From TrEMBL:
Keywords: Methyltransferase, Transferase, Ubiquinone. It comes from the Bacteria. SUPFAM superfamilies: S-adenosyl-L-methionine-dependent methyltransferases. GO terms for biological process: methylation. Residues 64-161 form the Methyltransferase type domain. CDD domains: AdoMet_MTases. One of its GO terms (molecular function) is methyltransferase activity. Pfam families: Methyltransf_12 (PF08242). This is Ubiquinone/menaquinone biosynthesis C-methylase UbiE.
Length: 229
């Protein structure tokens, strides 16, 4: 079951649009192979198992996915209930439609939204929220775009969890091939992570959560923050 809400407040910065424009219908068909079998393990040195484990151990019965990609991780997640309610929030209608079709067995709601602005869902309405492989596509440094973490936290109930992952440029080990690919993707406007430092990510988590985890796998920061009950 799928419902849709179209909400965009004001004009969206062109760099934000550029960061999600690569996720068009043709590219989405190959995204899982390219990312979870290609760039993640080979260039960023992070096994897909790390992402899936975070979903399996963090997700709630009512979940908000911010920056939905193809829904690969959601489709393979072990939810704590048999009938989860999933809100899909993204600027790109193509990714929303693709992911909603993939999750057709679940109750989903599609929301067109910019992660740099408050997500148009009721405050404290979800058990969990995820920002997976999103922040490195958003322009600005983590000191600026870390506001997306605050917006995710605002949508989660007390005691709920915000989790996710992002590819970092600074403060983590990056292979020569990984640096080449990052620079290439930054040059094309697909990535915007050449200022993204591990310590800035840690600072954003400290600002939003009293209790959080941050681990590094290769060039990827995986994080989980628990909202105070």
């Amino acid at each position: 079951m799928t419902s849709t809400s179209d909400h965009q407040s004001g004009e969206v910065d062109q760099a934000v649009l550029d960061g999600q424009a690569a996720y068009h219908p043709r590219a989405l068909a190959f995204y899982d192979l390219m990312v979870f079998r290609g760039s993640a393990p080979l260039f960023w040195r992070c096994s897909p198992r790390n992402f899936q484990q975070m979903y399996d151990t963090s997700i709630g019965a009512k979940h908000l996915e911010i920056g939905v990609g193809t829904g690969y991780l959601l489709a393979h997640t072990r939810f704590p209930v048999s009938n989860p309610k999933i809100t899909l929030a993204d600027l790109n209608p193509s990714t929303l439609e693709f992911t909603a079709r993939r999750l057709a067995l679940y109750e989903t709601t599609q929301v067109v939204a910019n992660a740099l602005e408050p997500i148009p869902v009721p405050a404290e309405s979800h058990d969990s929220a995820a920002l997976s492989f999103l922040l490195h596509c958003v322009p600005g440094s983590l000191r600026e775009k870390g506001v997306a973490i605050r917006h995710a936290a605002a949508a989660v109930k007390p005691g709920g969890t915000v989790f996710g992952s992002t590819i970092l440029y600074l403060g983590v080990p990056v292979t020569r091939s990984g640096r080449w690919l990052m620079d290439n993707l930054n040059g094309k406007g697909v990535f915007h992570n050449n200022e993204d430092h591990l310590e800035d990510l840690r600072d954003q988590l400290k600002q939003n959560f009293d209790d959080f985890d941050l681990v590094v796998r290769g060039s990827v920061g995986l994080f989980r923050g628990r909202k105070a009950a």
